Fold this protein.
Amino acid sequence: MSYGFWTFTGATASYFVTHPIDSEFYPVQRLGIAFQTAVVGLSSLAAGIFGFTALGIFLLGIRVAVGISSGELDPQKQSDDETVRQSTAEKVRDILTKDPVDVVMAARRAKEKAAAAVAQK
């Protein structure tokens, strides 16, 4: 997408240079130039954002591959501890991908287990 936006930026900039605004009315000239600037500016901004995002994802993929090959990361490992706190994103993912009743019951069991552990102390 970054390359596409960058190509679009160059194409629109060259089009706007070769096809100037042919109006003698001053507000039309100014609005046309503002529109041209917005199109070229936003497309180059989008190209940069997508480019840096793609670079970051690529570098993250390399880091994960290095972590897996060195044994630091194990993609097959499942958590054995039910008391591990889930992030909000993980809770939403579980609700959307699993049976909601099972998710709620697992959360209730975890709360009861935590309450029992506090009561024992």
Q: What stands out?
A: Residues 2 and 51 are 5 Å apart (CA to CA). DSSP finds four helices and no strands in the chain. The mean pLDDT is 89.
